[in-house]
Amino acid sequence: MNNTWFRRFTTVAGVGPRLVCFPHAGGSATAYMHLARTLPADFDVLSVQYPGRQDRYGEAPFTDLAPLVEAVAEELARELAADPGRPYALFGHSMGSLVAFETARLLVERELPGPQRLFLSGRGGAHLPNSADYHLFDDADVLADVRELGGTDQIMLDDPEILRMVLPALRADYRALGTYRFVAGEPLTAPITALTGDRDPMVTVQEARTWREHTSGDFALKVFPGGHFYLAERIGPVAAAVTEGLLAGTAAS
């Protein structure tokens, strides 16, 4: 695949349903490498690579969610057009949940093929206000928040050279989160599966359940043991939940 926006972490692209994955704030496409390799081999798993990180480090990161969604939707529309008829779903974690949700809304608004299902993880419904004024955070605030949430990238915070490289993307993502404002509209018809950790300091189980308000289709809530980055420790059960949800949507289409 010769595309700036999407990465594959499997040797061969599966011919079955497609799953497009959206990383968390400060995250990169590699956040979904283990999920891609745990899901059934016939799935085609694409991970979004936002500008400003890893091999896109030289590009300016987005500081506003709307143009980021616009750019992702445009690239995804091209992928869909190149392989018409293949069912697909979107998976987003934390900030990625908002990007995935708004991308789905934009595709539907433009009368393009919508996803079979959305998997929205580590965040409450898009209409809920942020728990903090993220756009006002300075570097110390951002790093304190990242440390509190935990995750697999904690070691990078202790390396000044790596920290210097990741901070611009983190700052940009926190600004995008802080300035996001939900605009009410018609619920999606695609089913939604909300996923969360039972000890997530950022979102309660009840808040995760509010994604129900954003679909007129089926809704499921999956709660896993763990904190905000429960994904890293529960990759097998998460992959099973995604497989069940995506195959159910495919069978219904």
Automatic annotation (TrEMBL):
**Its Gene Ontology molecular function terms?**
hydrolase activity
Give the record's keywords alphabetically. Hydrolase
Q: Where is the Thioesterase TesA-like domain?
A: 20-247
- Kindly indicate whether the keyword rRNA-binding belongs to this entry: no
Pfam families in the record = Thioesterase
- Could you mention a single GO BP entry for this protein? lipid biosynthetic process
UniProt entry tagged with the keyword Cell cycle: no
Source superkingdom: Bacteria
Q: Could you tell me which InterPro entries the record lists for this protein? A: AB_hydrolase_fold, TEII, TesA-like, Thioesterase
Q: Which family does the record assign? A: Belongs to the thioesterase family.
Q: What protein is this chain from?
A: Thioesterase TesA-like domain-containing protein
Q: Which organism is it from?
A: Streptomyces yokosukanensis
Q: What is the lineage of its organism?
A: Bacteria, Bacillati, Actinomycetota, Actinomycetes, Kitasatosporales
